[in-house]
Each structure stands twice: as structure tokens, then as C-alpha cells.
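Cross-posted from the bioinformatics board.
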Amino acid sequence: MHDLRMVRDQIDALREGMRRRGALKKLGPLIDRAAELDRNRRLTIQAVEERKAERNAASQSVARLKRAGENADDVQKRSRELGEEISRLDSELAETEISLNGILLELPNINLDVVPEGGEENNAIVRTWGEPREARAVKPHWEIGEALGLIDFQRGAKISGSGFIVFRSEGARLVRALMSFMLDLHTRQHGYEEVWVPIAVNRASMTGTSQLPKFEDDMYRLAEEDMFLIPTAEVPVTNLYRDEILNASDLPKALTAYSPCFRREAGAAGKDTRGLLRVHQFDKVELVRYAIPETSNDELELLTGHAEKVLQLLELPYRVVRLAAGDTGFASAHTYDLEVFAPGVGAWLEVSSCSNFTDFQARRAGIKYRPVEGGKPRFVHTLNGSGLAFPRIIAAIFEHHQQPDGSVVIPAALRPYFGAERLG
RNA sequence: GGAGAGAUGGCCGAGAGGCUGAAGGCACCGGUUUGCUAAACCGGCAUACGUGGAAACGCGUAUCGAGGGUUCGAAUCCCUCUCUCUCCGCCA
């Protein structure tokens, strides 16, 4: 969410930000409407507060008069009239603020200057690591998974539905190995605190990290409780400090969490439906950092490096892509996607999206810090990225580390966790 | 699920319609004193919005779990909800 002052004092910058995302046509009128609502809001506030001040003074004189044993009927009458005006103006104000807030919640973050404007076609490859293996004679991961008895797609669909899968035997063990491997790496080598969090969260949390109000249809909702299954551990982990003020000495704060993630993928029907590329439930180890504004750019590089380290240790070739403005997520100011090459499907698969949200989520979620002892609190900057998402990593391992005989070599770094050198 | 108790500033805790943005204590910050440390003493110490100001800061409004109500006036009375604790039941 943007500071209301953006609408007031920097409306051109706001408009420019939307233009760079290619969203000005759609959001420009909303911005104008917000500016108008802001003017109304301030006029109404002035009117209502004037009357409240007068009423407060009147109540004081009632108290004085009564103590002196004098008649206060006139003052009480005036005060009652003021009260009626106040409740009228208050509800007018509430309406204005609801509309205004509704618009603010719909405006995406403004991208940093390094981010190319425009859509996906302007995404820029920043660097690549490793050699993509030739696709010839490499089976896609779903064939390997089924041939080796590691993934059971049919029964996943039977017990839940399409897009739900079952890992079994060494496949299930591989999931568990990845979990421990990634968490150990980030806690022991990269300095993250491990957290274990709820995977069903309330509306306020979903709003804090910007999944709501815009993306309600993409999530599984528990109707009775009005709760949501998380699409990423970003939600509970970032909301850990919602409505709190941190000390400067707490920053940067680095948290990592394993969690299952749930996505309805509404509107993605027919896209990447085979295998592990797009499933409704998957596992992920998430990295979240809270930083002071001055260092958040560096923090993004650091966090991206931590996610990259996982791919390097898994010996999987990947590239780092700086997303163009129109392709960055709603809340993000700057995003690097990590894409791993999967020769079986012949595609670069997004396995992590590392983003600097600047103060956008922090303002929504009310996460502040005190720069100096006794100083005024400021909003923190929040960052996160997957480190990493399991299914596509598994797909990449199956395909990239596949041997001519159809077996799969487990990367050395994972062997202590997996307990064997190969699958099949 | 049933019965009861509770929610006040960073923390503890008073307050029971007006004199309370909120006593007192702790913590924290600044100062005085002091071989050092500690102690003692003095002072400071919430957030948001609006408004004036270059700024320091001033003024106004709101905030005692959340929302509604009663009243000229609510931390205080009433209603609803949320959360915490205790006991009972059920249960991995």
C-alpha cells in the first residue's frame, strides 16, 4: 500500500509508476478518484473535528455549571445538536475512508529505477550459472517419477483431485531430504532463524502481504473460519511482526520456514498441467528478511544469493532474471526470478522469486522499527524469496541428473540427507 | 463443546461517569553527584490523523482488546465479537 501522501503530493510519480507497469490506463482513473476522495476526507475531518472540539468544551462547561449548582440546559441542548452533526459527519467520513482505502489497496507498488518498464518481453537475464544439458534422450520428470515409483499422480487425483500428487518411497524421502538440506543450509550457513508457522491464516494476514483483496480467488478458503490456506510461507512469516515496532538492533532480521503451499491456480487451466510444474499443493522453504530502507537493495542481492546457493549445491544450471515492471508481483518493487533448466521439458522453470517489497507490505501490515532509541518509528522494508520450491526442483533433478539407464544421480550435497547416491 | 475470570502505555499496575493521555513502579534516555561500577537525586519518555510552521515545535481530534449503544460527557454503564487464563467434557 502506498502512503496516502503519494496521492496528495507525488501523484505524478505514482502515475509514472503505474505507467511503467503498463497499468496506467486501468489505474489512472482510480488515482484521480483517490485524489478527490482525499480532498473530501480532509474537508470532512476538519468539519467534524471542529465540532468535536466545541462539544468537548461544552461538556466541560456542563461539568462546571453543575458543580456550581447552575442550570446547564442550554449548553446540553447545543451539545446534543453538535452530537447529531458529528455522527452524520463521522459516517460520511467513514464512507469516504472506506472508498479511499479500497483504492489504495488496489494500487500495486512502484518499481525501482533498475527495473525495466513494460511487460514480460522486457525481462532481462542478469546472469547464468552452469551448463544447460542437451535435451536429447532425456525423459521428462513425470515419466521418470512414475517409472521409478516415486510419484503417484493417479492416486493423488483420486484422493484429492487433479493437481494433487503423492510422493512415495524414495520420492517421499527426497522431499524430506530437500526440506532438511535447505533449512540446514540457510540456518547454518546463511544465518537465518528457522520458524515453523501456521499454514491457515486470517484475512488480516492475507491483506498484510497483499494477497488480499486482489487475489482471493487464487486461494483455498476455509468458509467456516474465514481463513485461508497459505499460498506461500511469506504470508505467516512476514505477518509475524504485523503491528509491531522492532528495534533497529533487530535488523536485518532473517527468517526461514518450511511449509506446504496451496494454490487454486484458477485461470491457469491447461497450462503446465503435466507432471510437477503446476500443482495445487507443494512444499517450499521460504526466506524472509526485514531490513532498514537504506540497505534493502543490498539485502535483495544477499537473499537472491542464498537462494542461488541451493541451486549451485544441487548442481542445477540456472539463470537469474530481472523482471520487467509489468511482470513483477503486485507488492514488489524489484524482483529476480531464479529459473532452473529442465532438459526433459526443455524449459527454464521458475523456482524462486526474490523480491524487495520496500515499505509496501510493511505499511499494510504495520511493521515498523525505531531508527534511534526514542526516535520516530519508520516502516521497515520486507523481502522474500523461495529457497526453494520443491516440485520444480525435483523435476529438474530428475531431468538434469538423469543417467542413460533412466536412474537419477543424487547431487553430493543432498546425499547425507537422502542417504543414497542415486534413485532407481 | 459447557461454566467462570480477565484484556489499561515497552513491562507491571491503579482508576469504577467530568479534575485521566491516563496515578505509582520497572525498563529506557539525558543530566547532577560519584576513585570505577552501583546507588541517590532532577528531568524526559505513546501512536495516528488533521492543521499551522523552513524547522524546532504549537494547536486540534482520536486511541485503555475490536465494533456498536446509552449520555451534554465513557477507560469507567449496556450489547456483540475477538483473544487470554482456570475448571469440566472430548480428542491427535
